[in-house]
Input
Amino acid sequence: MISPSRLLVLACALCMAPASADAAPKKAKAPAKASPAKTDEGKDAEKAPEAPPPAPAAEQPVLSTAGSREKFDVGEAAPTFALRAVNPEVIGENLVAVDRYFGADAKQPKKAVLISFFATWCEPCKKEMPFLAALYDTYKDKGLMVLSVSIDREADQIDVIKTLATNANTKYPVLSDRFNIVAKRYMVAKLPLVYVMSPDGKVAFSRVGFTEDTPRALADEVRKLIGESAAPMPDTLTRFLGGVPAVADAGKTDPTVATATVNKTTTVSGSSTTATEPVKTDGSDAATTKGKKAKPKKGKRK
Output
């Protein structure tokens, strides 16, 4: 028989024994791995890393940014801009800003500001420039300012622009918009495009293309804005009203183009600028082809 003192010693020994493996403290579980994402087809797929933001699209030389619109409407405010002049030796400055001529903060306010967009490859534009030069010379002292803006993108075209301006006897600023930033703002989709601005900077008149009635329409609008509507049309302008004399082509001359007073509108489209061929006429019903009248084809005899 075990004595009570012996039982007490055995009980104490059992209490001091090390805990069993099952009673060992549990280790912290490792964080569970995220389950792979499920695709639409129910298959496991690794989560793709976030893609870097897309690079900005390259600048496209498409000019029109106004959908089906080809110009501002009368009464709309026109954007201001500043461009480098290609004829600084004529106008006496290198940079021209239009907000000096119209708007609330104009430093040299004008009664009418005519802005024409053109290109050296645009045949109707070449016929327009001599008229604009005469219009400016006639009314520059009565509140008219004229600006021609070239959209030619090649640097080597600057000399061609200068030659065109010299041949047309222009004494107003001829500006270069090589990157077509201003052209886009003014919704230039066809050439020539002319705006006449009122002193408040809003469009008073606009015209796409250059036909035989364009000189009179422009002259009438300018004369109205400067207060000369009732005055007789000056002789310096009347010579343009029945037809526009051609100006010497500073670029390549197309031998198939005869003197014409009615031209198709020159267009700017796609990723490059292209000009449609002007209507060729020698005053008769027959169109000229390489300087010769087209002969009607004879029908075959049965």
Summary: The chain has a mean pLDDT of 73. The CA atoms of residues 64 and 189 lie 5 Å apart. Residues 123-139 form the longest helix (17 residues).
